[in-house]
Structure formats: C-alpha cells, structure tokens
Amino acid sequence: QEDIFKKVIAHAKEYGYVVQSSEIYDGLSAVYDYTQNGAELKKNIREYWWKAMVQMHENIVGIDAAIFMHPTTWKASGHVDAFNDPLIDNKDSKKRYRADVLIEDHVAKIEAKIDKEVNKAAKRFGEAFDKEQFLSTNTRVVEYRKKASDILQRMGRSLEAEDLDDVKKLIEELGIVCPVSGSKNWTDVKQFNLMFGTKLGASAETATDLYLRPETAQGIFVNFLNVQKSGRLKIPFGIAQIGKAFRNEIVARQFIFRMREFEQMEMQFFIRPGSQKEWYEKWKETRMKWHLSLGMGEENYRFHDHEKLAHYADAAADIEFKFPFGFKELEGIHSRTDFDLRSHEEYSGKKLQYFDPELNESYVPYVVETSIGLDRMFLAVFSHALQEEELENGSTRTVLRIPAVLAPTKAAVLPLVKKDGLPEIAHKIIADLKWDFNVIYDEKDAVGRRYRRQDAAGTPFCITVDHQTLEDNTVTIRHRDSMEQLRVSIDSLRNHIAAEVDM
Ligand code: ATP
C-alpha cells in the first residue's frame, strides 16, 4: 500500500500535476503547488461541484468571501477557544503527535484484525457467508468491536470534557508506543490552536491581530442576511462557496490529504428549526450520489457517523473514501443547528433572523452544511485513477483513468508523420476544437509511444491524422480506457468528445 502511494506521488510530479511548494529550497512541509495538469484537474473538479451544487439548484447561490475576517468572527464561531488539537510528545524521540490520531491508529489496528477474521470466515463459508450475522455473533469479533467502540467513546468523552489527563492515561493503558522510537515515555497532553495568526496595520502599537480563516463557512454566516435579502431567498435555501482555508496542522503527512493551506467547497443550507433531521439525511444522500456519479466504484465509499461531535453540531457524518492508505474522511455533512448565527447575533449585536411568510414569524434558521476538501477530492480522483495494467501481449501500461469530464486534457491530436501535410491538418483540428475543449498537439516519437504518454497523463482521447485523412477527411479516435480505435469523420469529432466529457 505504501508502495502504491509512493507511485501516486511520483506520478503526480512526473506528469505535471502536483509538486512540493518551494521545491528548490527543499520544500515547505505540507504545502503543495499544482502544476499545469493539476491546475486543470482542480479547476474541473471545482466546476463539477459548482454546477451540481449551485447551477442545478434553484435555491442555492454562490458567493466569494474574503480570507481575512473581523477577528471577533473567530471568537463567535468558537475557533479561538475550541479549535484545538490535543498534542503529546514522546520524550525519547522528541516527536510530536496528535493524541487522538495515535488512539485512532490503535483502533484501526483492532479494526484490521476484525477485517482479517471476516475475510477468513468469508473464504471458509463461501456463498453462505452472512457478514452482518458474523459480526454480531462471532465471540472474538464481538469482543474486538466492543473494545474499539469503548476506546473511541472514552476518548470522545475525555476530549469533550477537556480531561486531557484521561487522554494521556488512555494512551498509557493501551500501551501505545511512539511509531519512531518504539518508546512509551510520553509527556502530558496539551491543547494546540490550529489557526494561523497574522497582523493588519503598519505599526506594532496599532496593528490588529488577524487569523487566516480555518474554514470558509464563517464568510457565509456573516453574509447570510445580505444574500437572503438581495436575492429575496425563501427558506429553505443554500449559500455555497469555494475558497482557501488554512490550518496549522501538526500531523501533516500523506501528501495533499492534510495540508496547511488547502481549498474547501462548502454549502450551508438554511432551514426551519426542527427540520434538521430530514435535511441532514437528504444532504447525506445527495452528496453520496454526486460522488457515485463519477463512476469511481460504490465499494470505495462509506459513511461514518460521528459519535464525538464538534462544538457546533447535533449530528455529523463523513463520507469516507478508500485512499491508498485506507478509508479516510473525504467530506463532512454536519447539522450545525443555529449555533453560528446565534453566536454572531450575540457578538455583533445585530439580528440575524429570517421572517418566514408562511409561518408569519421570525426565527434564527438552522443550518445543515456539506463540506469537502478540493485537494482531498483531487487525491481521491488521482489515486483511484492511477493503474498499471497487464496487456494481452504481456507488456504493462500505466494508465491514469481520470473520469473524462474531469480530465485536464480532453484530446491529443497526433499526425502519424511529420510531413505530407498531416501536421497542418492536425493543427486545423485543434483550432476548431480548442474553444470548447482543452486539446493538445503531439508529434514527437512513434505513435504507439505517444499513445502511452497520453494514457499516463490521463488524456481520454487520441485523434490520429494519417494518409487516409488526405483522401476522405477521416481520422482515428482512440479511447484511453478500452484502447479501441474508431474511424470517424473530422466533422463528427466534437460530438464524439462531447458525448463523454460534457458535464
Ligand atoms: P480531519 O478530521 O481530517 O482533520 P476535519 O474533520 O477537521 O478533518 P472539517 O473541518 O470537517 O475537517 O473540514 C471539511 C473538509 O475539509 C474535510 O472533509 C476535508 O476534506 C477538508 N480538510 C480539512 N482539513 C484539511 C487539510 N488540512 N488539508 C486538506 N483538506 C482538509
């Protein structure tokens, strides 16, 4: 698994997708740059989300709020007091860890044991195997599951009560060792705030302390009435936004999975108090459908309902995706109650209420939000796409099966040879298509090698101009995934491509 992940990272660099930021200075930890193909893929994911969430919903509008916000925002939102990670240091290795992540990794090991038992039993019983029944009746598995759930519950309770001594005790009782030194010599657990601070203003005396926003949501909450009034929006309605967020993550590892500067795609849906359960379920379902629409395999997604809730939520679930390092959170769906709007009312002294003409009363709306990391979605798409395939002739090919609608380059146009007027025709095809699709020209190397290069770069179509083109105005169009080639007229190319890549 580690090997696969290393390949993903190397491939992302080699094919112009992602590199470490400031690489010539040996990089900056957990900060990344998207290069030419990565920028296109990111843009296409952004657009795919925006179309589905904003354009396709009559009652959802999009905004673009500033990264800097009035500092009181973060008092009201709870981020100054409660946006912390519990940290613990190992005294021997001097390495710092998130205490909750250490405990969760320990639980993941127990879960791996459960998986092993399930797989063994599935093999033994074959068709007759009933997984649910096995999970609830096999005594060893029942014991493992109870243990895992007890640990998580106790951790959740202790963190909520800020009982950090108990978190440390739990680590000691479980015998968790430092992954680097193997030692159990831990310090106390301390809270660490994740927000990046900066200053506004020139002189030290007058400067104001600011934060880089750790989530985009607050830009929506503070604009809730502006948008509702100017758009004459009626509840239920949503406000969506895509933008950068910043978190001073301690456990910054796993490539673009957890970054210090990243992009969120969030939508806050404003509803009548009391209707949150219904909307929460609805948005869970709608967001899962969006993921499945990309065809990356139903078996690679699952819901994880939270037992430990954030300070603002009355229900929360993650959509988890099977990354190369296992199932991890890709998106969160949170029922945020009226926590944020009420708190902003209190701190700003301004009313943030909605007059409901049907009920003939005013209230502070409840909110259900969907929140997905654009970079994490990028990693899901990219790591799932990268495949090595054995071909019939025994050779292997590396292919990046990015869904055509998201692929950075939709088609490469290749003249079979660099003479006889074929390059000119290829350039003309590109000129005809390039307003609608990102298409490129490639004439270097034998055509077979060019196909392989485009396969690895993720280009869904290769269009080849050959000598027959001179006679009948047809070309071949080759599909990346099936490697099938069709002979089609140049005039029909636009339709062929559009059939697969139009959103
Ligand atoms: P985690 O538990 O992984 O730290 P979280 O629960 O704090 O994430 P949220 O605050 O719910 O995450 O943020 C919503 C989404 O933003 C996440 O589902 C994830 O896709 C993305 N996200 C959060 N933190 C990061 C990060 N440091 N780097 C990249 N994406 C992130």
TrEMBL record:
GO cellular component: cytoplasm; extracellular exosome; microvesicle
InterPro entries: aa-tRNA-synt_IIb, aa-tRNA-synth_II, aa-tRNA-synth_II/BPL/LPL, Anticodon-bd, Anticodon-bd_dom_sf, Gly-tRNA_synthase/POLG2, Gly_tRNA_ligase_bac, GlyRS-like_core
Pfam families named among the record's database cross-references: HGTP_anticodon (PF03129), tRNA-synt_2b (PF00587)
Gene Ontology annotations of biological process type: diadenosine tetraphosphate biosynthetic process; glycyl-tRNA aminoacylation
UniProt key word Aminoacyl-tRNA synthetase: yes
Subcellular location(s) per record: Cytoplasm
Annotated residues for binding of substrate: R98, E215, F262, E263, Q264, M265, E266, E369, T370, S371, I372, G373
One GO MF term: ATP binding
The protein's role, per its UniProt record: Catalyzes the attachment of glycine to tRNA(Gly).
Subunit relationships: Homodimer.
Protein name as annotated: Glycine--tRNA ligase
Gene: glyQS
